[in-house]
Amino acid sequence: MFLAQLFKHWSYQVFAPGALLRNRYNAFKDLLLRDDESLRLIADLEDICHGREQADFARVVWLFDQLSRSVRAMVERLSEMSPTRYLSLPDYFKKIDFYVRMALDEPPPDMSGPYLLPLSEAARREPAAGGKAANLARALAAPGVATPDGFVMTAQAFHYLLEHNGLREVVDNALREVTLSRPDKTAEACRRIREMILNADIPEEASVPLKEWAWRTAERSKTGKLAVRSSAVSEDSAASFAGLYVSRLDVEPKDVEQAYLQVLAGKYGERAVIYRALHGLTDRETGMAVLVLPMVDAKAAGVAYSLDSLHLEGLGRRDTLSIYATRGLGASLVEGGSSPQITHLSRDAQPRILERILETPSVILDDAVCRELARQVLDLEELFGDPQDVEWALDQNGRLVILQSRPMRSERIPVRSEASDDDAPAFPVLMDGLDRAAGGSCCGVVRHLASLDRTEEVPEGVVLAVESLTPSLTGLIRRVAGVVAATGSRATHFASVARELGTPVVVGGPDIFDKLPDGLEVSLDANAGRIYAGRVEGLAGAERPKAQGPLEQRCRKAMPLISRLNLTHPDAADFRPEGVKSMHDVVRFIHEKAVAEMFSLVGKSGRGMARSRRLKSRLPLVMYVLDLGDGLFDQSEGDEATPEDFASTPMWAVWWGLSTTQAQWSDEMLHMDWTEFDRISGGLFKLDSRLLASYAVLSADYVHLMVRFGYHFAVLDSVCGEDPKNNYANFRFKGGGGDFEQRLLRLDFIESVLSHYGFAISRRGDMLDARLSRIPDERLQRILAHLGRLLARTRLLDMSMNSAEQAEELAREFIHSADPANGSSEHDVW
Prior knowledge:
This protein is α+β, with helices and mostly antiparallel strands. It is built from 23 helices and 28 strands. The protein is elongated, with a radius of gyration of 37 Å.
């Protein structure tokens, strides 16, 4: 491949130098597009990996794949421009690419089985059974804790189902659209995945045992039905996924396959996927196991917290055990749709009832049941070694059943509010005695959710007023500062997630909308159950904890190899292929070297200009023009072109400056390369020979211009288009007819002028190089016009230069003459 490319390059160089110019230019233009794409992709990866954007890990992998392809194309384009100069660059790119892929690599999911486990085996097989099933299996083995027996369809069965139906790559492709900033795309991606899974075929190796064990388990249920519940890997662990996955209750054994697929599809509910992304967890590492239990015919149900720090009437702040109960199934309680009976008990070996709050006409749980439930909850706390959040049910025979146990989300509750009583006169209390659902404090402007057409319209940092604490609010939890609800409790799934993520939440009754008008700035102290008017700085809230999941760990390894810029200066000794240490370095190196290659696009001999046109103008300047495409208007034809034919934006701007009325041109002197003429003419060359002339290589937004004035020459290479990131102007000036000191004084003059217009300058001997990049096209056009004026002004200037003071004064006069306030006309100064 390389030898073929090299032979092609040499063939063009010898036999078709004009075609070589076009090929190099086309490679350069594609390289600039890839440069822009690569920098955009690096920025997207930085946003995700540094927490400015939440996205699925599949998006990170996809973005890097795109970046790798884009940078590889840049390497190839640079090789086309100069096949022999950067031979080692592809190998350094491949090495960096390999290391990044190693950093981002995920182990392949285990599909080897088993696909079904009895619940009793789940405790020692948590990676297969998931957190919920593993915890329940440990409770099942504990004496004195009533737990139903069942079975688990493992995470291996889930991964095998995806592979069996060819869905793994399809799911990854959909998940790459998941970002919190694009909720519409996230919702559509999740919908597509759920639909595919619901229509998937369950492999026989999994479907046969599933149906067999479903009938066996249903026989042990008094209802003859099943509860089919999620038990994803990582669920009920550091990330609870409370209320975000799907459960199917009252399932007939014959319908267990459909219920199984529904629970699997629930893994890709929009709120569940967003929550997983917020915790930095990847899709492959959170495989979905499914727990199947006999259905409990519940008389009452609810949740219990083994450790709850509350302020109790007459007792002050106490660590209590709290039970939240509702009639029937507990779904309405955890989804925020009902107000429960709340019982607070002591955490003694023989729990005592400290307080009961009734929201219903009659008691749901009597004292004896509350004490027995409290005892079992404390046993679970001792079993797991941490405070527990327990889901329970009371069947029609009055038997307690533990359905779930997971670690409680801890809250740091100060002994007193950050806002002291002395603050009250300065900050009026709008509401007091509110129920804390999730501790913390914040300041923000109140927005009523009901006043917005869509949840995506909720602004950042507001205190959101809502009717109830429904799980649908989970997608907003990182966007809002705090939440005030009319109904709900600490027992809701949303409150559990809020406690994990440090978002303060209170419940205040139906009059919250009247007392907290839309648009009012408030300070919420959930710990004290109080809301103040205005901003109390002490309640502004601490920075929320950032996720430290697998995504963050992989990003920490990968990002230095992707975005860290080590090559900063093109003139540095390490600015070579051996110095690149990241993808950003490769992009930077290629961009600089590609521009340098274009800077030497045509040698002084003018090879490749054979099909150019002689420029006919009023200026005594011998110049030939080669159009690479759209550099001249279509109507121009023949062997000559005029300035009116220029369609090239940068060429037109430079010519404007060259031909300004401020530039004095003499018809008595023809401007060409007198040095070359003296060397080779011997009277044999015409003065308009291409070997002695100036030339311009043009396209619509590009110019490569070599101007020969007597004994000096200047080279300009510039892109001037709509995208500022691709725009640049590189300029070189060398030589002259004066002595060496006079030539240096002229460079002093040029340096002062170009520095004024923002160029970075470097000098070696009597040669000056100037660089300017990444500026809007309109500004660059003006600068190029001034550069044209400068070229006209420097002709034979070295002959008259005597001192540094003179050079500085001439520079001030030049800059001063370009200021319209000094009487220059529009044409004079652009």
